Amino acid sequence: MKVHFVEIGFDHVQMKEASTFLNNLPTSLELDDHVIDGLIAAGRYLLRNEPSFQAFRRTSNASLAEGTMSDKTLCEYFKDSGY
């Protein structure tokens, strides 16, 4: 068994709109639905572009599930949402 560790964080976000959105989140235990959707979209984008995750996908011959948002769609999510 081969283990792959992946570390992602807000500081890895290179897209201005997403970075602004993430860094302006309130520290609250209650978040609006659109904020949760934004966090999920950012997490997906960060994970997909993380080199260790890409290596895992290559070595295990894995692919993203059918119907998964493309990177382009994830980027447009933040631009179209006004973040």
The helix content is 40-55%
| Large-scale geometry | globular
* Mean pLDDT figure: 80
What class would the helix/strand composition place it in? Answer: mainly alpha
Please give the count of helices.
4
Number of domains: 1
Unreliable spans are: none
Major beta sheet summary: none
How far apart lie the N and C ends? Answer: 41 Å
Count of strand segments: 0
Order of helices and strands: HHHH
The gyration radius over C-alpha positions equals 14 Å
- Strand proportion, as a percent range, falls in under 5%
What does this structure look like?
The protein has helices at 16-23, 33-48, 51-59, 71-80. With 83 residues, it is mainly α. The chain has one domain (10-80). The relative contact order is 0.21.
In short:
It is built from four helices and no strands. It is mainly α and 83 residues long. Helix 2 packs antiparallel against helix 4 (71-80).
What keywords describe this structure?
83 residues; mainly alpha
Sequence-ordered SSE layout with sheet pairings:
Elements lengths: L15 H8 L9 H16 L2 H9 L11 H10 L3
